[in-house]
From TrEMBL, chain A:
Residues 201-367 form the Spore germination GerAC-like C-terminal domain. Its main location: membrane. This is Ger(X)C family spore germination protein. Residues 26-192 form the Spore germination protein N-terminal domain. PANTHER family: SPORE GERMINATION PROTEIN B3. It comes from Paenibacillus glycinis. It holds the Pfam family Spore_GerAC. It is found in: Membrane.
Length: 370, 364
């Protein structure tokens, strides 16, 4: 009996030893690790990259809540090696939440950078991407005294705004997926520094990996209607025509449904985007009486006309810029045979096709008052 | 070890075959389908399902003609051992090498994700020890352990429902099989994802004849097929063909997208759990190799043979030291194994045609 027990001992012992010794390899000691939370990229005039990283500091003895390092280098990983020489921490990117792309960098094309980030198994595909209208490093480096720590401030503002669809969600996964898809172009939210704050500055539209067009913030909701269906959103509309009395409406709790139909072929292709909106009116300034069903129908028609007009104008601009952030291409592609699609020069066709937007607005209620 | 007289229950057989079939290949399956069969490549899977089922029916024929006797007994009653020994040697080698390579691949992916500079040999040793202590206990214990592993891993499919909001049918496109390279290594690689079912041949002696072994094997394969179709369709609609073609392990990236308020980077958990499905596959192949080698060296104790198998393949397994090389080796051994999966039953049927098996045991 004793003998048998002895014979059994070595195996568990070996296992324990192997596990314990395995831990001596890649050590990760929390206090000595710098978890990069945000990183920024700018293109220098000499063609090098200016890269900055923000790392939260956890030790009690340091007054600073975060550490920002920046350097210039030909590639991002080389920059990391350079930055590593300036810090006592071991830099890791497993907690990377936000990547900020300076406008100069985004305009030059970010393909290589995307490849680096998607290749690195440490980087989460949930990482957010945003384009900075201006210098990304400056925006990241500054402290915004009335807000949380800068990197968290940026992350939260992006998350919150994407929650109400004022900006599209742009994670690394979504960006790269749309980049590889031949029927859609990537988009990313745009931010900029505004004095003591950071402000959402519209939507950055890409053509392949190149930033080509900035959609102003007031078009962002229209863009969201056209891009996909969603729940939760709000839009303020100025219905005033020139010379007419003031008229404005604010629709909240928006639920938007979308369908896309493609007809015709070649340059005669017509794409009809139907948008059905449900919402609550909580603010209205103007001549109509919200309590009267007839007036309410009138208001609905006015909103419909405004949204479809804005949407079609926005589409014209996007077509001119050659950026298909809505994904019209996917619908056109799916309406064709494979051979036809491959024969089609989609970039060229995109600028020629007719995109129409038909909106159906339903005001579900007007709040507590008649 | 000879005392294994307990018979396998139907459910355990089903799970055992299912667990032997699923393994690390599931991680790259979507990519292989995209590269080999092009747009909507996942639609090629039914063809594979049919071929595997045909192969299983062939094995079923052996089972019926051989009246449920062990394939080694069938062969040895008709041919001298000396003539059979090269075949046994081949089976032992291929099966043990497959077990070794499957674990090697797992270890190398694990290393890439979690411990980039640690020597993979350490992980390999630990996993080999685990596999050894499992397979040496015999088929009955492997099947019970596989059932536990099954419950440990099967709930992961539920996670995939959290990815539906990023799924788009649009991304699938209405095109079929364009832009694929239709290369042989890719095709056999996808077939290798189904491999493991052929080991059902070795279960012949261990199951109750009433257990309808072949029916269960076909059901298990159907289960594998359904899970593969589901996973592949999901990755095609989640990433789109363009990106999928460029990826290596789409499933890991897809699960990296799952996020709970209290935990992120769940793919690390997923990958840890995949160890179990891999372990089941590995244990079954080592066990099969051990069975075959037992016919060559019946005097040697099974545990010593097991050690020899593990040690032998361990050192051979050190030769390919990059992921790409391991993949290449796996492709070649996979092709040989496909040959065995079809060739061995055909050979057995030929033998059984020459001399029929009688109901009562024959003493030659």
């Amino acid at each position: 009996m004793r003998n048998a027990r002895w014979r059994r001992l070595p195996l568990p012992l070996l296992l324990i030893a192997a596990f314990a010794l395995g831990g001596c390899g890649d050590q990760r000691i929390l206090e000595r690790i710098g978890f990069i939370q945000s990183t920024s990229y700018d293109l220098m005039p000499n063609g090098e990259l200016k890269i900055a990283v923000a790392i939260p500091r956890l030790e009690a003895e340091s007054n600073e809540k975060r550490e920002v390092l920046s350097t210039t280098a030909p590639t991002s990983k080389q920059a990391r090696i350079k930055m590593s020489r300036e810090t006592s921490l071991q830099l890791v990117s497993g907690q990377l939440r936000v990547t900020l792309l300076g406008r100069s960098f985004a305009e030059a094309g970010i393909g290589n950078q995307l490849d680096t980030q998607i290749r690195d198994p440490a980087i989460s595909p949930l990482m957010k991407i945003a384009v900075v209208n201006g210098d990304a490093e400056q925006l990241l480096n500054q402290r915004y005294s009335q807000h949380p720590r800068t990197d968290r401030y940026i992350e939260r503002i992006l998350e919150k705004e994407a929650g109400t669809h004022a900006i599209p969600k742009a994670t690394l996964h979504q960006f790269v997926r749309d980049y590889y898809d031949d029927g859609i172009d990537p988009v990313a939210p745009m931010i900029r520094k505004a004095g003591k704050n950071i402000v959402i500055d519209g939507i950055a539209l890409f053509r392949d990996d190149r930033f080509v067009y900035r959609l102003p913030p007031q078009d962002a909701m229209i863009f969201a209607f056209m891009r996909s269906r969603f729940k939760q959103g709000e839009i303020g509309i100025n219905l005033q025509h020139q010379g007419a009395p003031r008229e404005a409406v604010m629709v909240t709790s928006l639920v938007s449904q979308r369908s896309v139909k493609v007809s015709g072929s070649g340059p005669g292709t017509t794409v009809t985007v139907r948008v059905a909106l449900d919402g609550t009116v909580l603010e209205y300034v103007g001549g109509l009486k919200l309590g009267k069903p007839k007036d309410l129908r009138k208001l609905e028609r006015k909103i419909e006309a405004y949204v479809s007009g804005q949407a079609e104008a926005m589409m014209k601009n996007m077509q001119r810029a050659g950026a298909d952030g809505i994904g019209i291409g996917a619908y056109v592609r799916n309406s064709m045979s494979y051979a036809d699609w491959k024969r089609t020069n989609w970039r060229e066709l995109y600028s020629q096709i007719d995109v129409r937007c038909k909106v159906k607005m339903t005001i579900k209620n007007v709040g507590k008052m008649k | 070890m000879v005392a294994v007289k307990e018979k396998l229950a139907p459910f355990h057989i089903l799970v055992l075959i299912y667990m032997t079939q699923t393994g690390v290949v599931i991680l790259s399956l979507g990519q292989m389908l995209a590269q080999t069969f092009g747009i909507n490549g996942w639609l090629a899977l039914p063809f594979y399902g049919v071929i595997v089922t045909a192969n299983l029916l062939l094995i079923g024929l052996v089972y019926r003609m051989g009246r449920g006797k062990s394939i080694f007994d069938i062969m040895e009653r008709r041919l001298p051992l000396l003539l059979l020994s090269p075949l046994y040697l081949l089976l032992t080698m291929v099966w043990s090498m497959l077990a070794c390579l499957v674990s090697m691949e797992y270890v190398l992916i694990f290393q890439m994700i979690a411990f980039p500079t640690t020597n993979p040999v350490w992980f390999k040793i630990v996993i080999d020890l685990l596999a050894y202590s499992l397979f040496i206990k015999g088929i009955y214990t492997i099947s019970k352990a596989s059932t536990v592993f099954f419950y440990l891993t099967v709930w992961m499919y539920l996670f995939s429902s959290m990815l539906f909001h990023e799924y788009s049918w649009n991304r699938l496109t209405p095109f079929f099989f364009q832009e694929g390279d239709f290369a042989l290594p890719g095709m056999s690689g996808i077939y290798a994802a189904f491999l493991g079912y052929e080991l059902v041949m070795l279960l012949f002696g261990y199951v109750d004849r009433s257990a309808k072994l072949m029916k269960l094997a076909i059901w298990a394969n159907l289960l594998v097929f359904v899970s593969y179709i589901y996973v592949s369709m999901l990755v095609f609609g989640f990433f789109g063909f363009g990106e999928l073609r460029e990826m290596q392990y789409p499933l890991i990236d897809m699960f990296a997208y799952v996020k709970f308020p209290f935990i992120e980077r769940i793919e690390n958990l997923l990958y840890g759990l995949l160890l179990f499905t891999m372990l089941a596959t590995m244990a079954m192949y080592y066990w099969s190799a051990n069975e075959a080698s037992g016919r060559l060296f019946p005097k040697l104790k099974p545990s010593y043979r097991g050690i020899a198998l593990i040690a032998g393949t361990f050192f051979v397994g050190l030769i390919p030291d990059t992921l790409a090389e391991v993949n290449e080796w796996l492709t070649w051994f996979g092709i040989v194994e496909i040959g065995i999966a079809f060739g061995l039953p055909l050979f057995l049927i030929a033998l059984l045609l020459i001399r029929k098996e009688k109901e009562a045991p024959v003493h030659a």
